[in-house]
Amino acid sequence: MQVLIIGGTGIISVGIVNALLARNANVTILNRGKTKVSIPAGVEVLIADRYDEPALAAAIAGRRFDAVIDMVCSQPAIAEAAVRVFANHCTQYIFCSTVATYGDGVRQLKPPEVTGVLVTEDCAQDPPNDYGRNKLACEVVFLRAHADGVFATTIVRPQITYGPGKLINDQLQWEDPAAWYRIERDLPVLCSGDGVGLTQATHRDDVGLFFAHAVLEPRTYGQAYNVVGDELLTWREFYRQVGVALGRRVQLISMPADWLIEHGGDFCELLGNTRYHHVYSAAKAKQDVPAFRCRINFAEGVTQNMKDGKRRGVWRRSDDPRYQPLVDAAMGIGMKAIEL
Prior knowledge:
Blueprint: E1 2-6, H1 11-22, E2 26-31, E3 44-47, H2 53-59, E4 65-70, H3 76-86, E5 90-96, H4 130-147, E6 152-158, E7 160-162, H5 178-184, E8 189-192, E9 198-199, E10 201-203, H6 204-214, E11 223-227, E12 233-234, H7 235-246, E13 251-255, H8 257-264, H9 271-274, H10 283-288, H11 298-311, H12 323-332, E14 338-339
Parallel strand pairs: 1-2, 1-4, 2-3, 4-5, 5-6, 6-11, 7-10, 8-13
Antiparallel strand pairs: 9-12, 13-14
């Protein structure tokens, strides 16, 4: 198989590359060459800015791929450019979207779409933010290309995905969450509600399996898939497991989501989704891509993730000037931490 990955160096991409190499695929990655990561032996690298349509077209001139896996696109205009560039250059286009296209967990979804807590691919899509709306608009572009016969389109919607190289997010923050190094320093951390909202987290190596085995799988053509882990975790258990990985007892303060958003603003950026149950069914993905199975449980994966964070020096920051005032304000109105 000849597979091109646009991006190729992010957390999920690393899992995809490894899984494709295990299938003896010929893997090419295309990016701007600015991310300093180790590229596995045998992987070809093309340097181009995918946002520069002529440069992208020049980079793949005279090439044809069995599949293109797009890990970067997040704007419909860029998706339209990709359709123009890759027409006649690939059999299948696999687009990495997101479960954020569904909306605020199950809050916005009503029967008959929802018969339980797990969101399926048949549920309505009503994204609450620009990121989800733009990803959904990209899905529309690529599925239209599929309907027009330009190439076969497969849509993949991951949830929380983590692995070495990037700390797993907490309930409030996406990038380098302060909560984990606060737990490392025996400081209280914040959680929305009473901490029993449900979530999932999937190791990048398991997500990579789906992408790799969806390549040239006809059952996936024209379809969208939730690619998520099997374990359903309350946020309270999520935090507790991180504490176990760090060898610490977690001091958890539960606060109403509205209070956290009012006082924390964009610091609590993820609460637009994570304040609600945020769990998805992967039954369709397992049915159509039988090789997709989650082999790394959360306890094992998050232990690996925290060890990697320590190795990379993530805990070198000496303070968290936006987090501590939230904790002080919560404790100032009488809230107390519980030990997990």
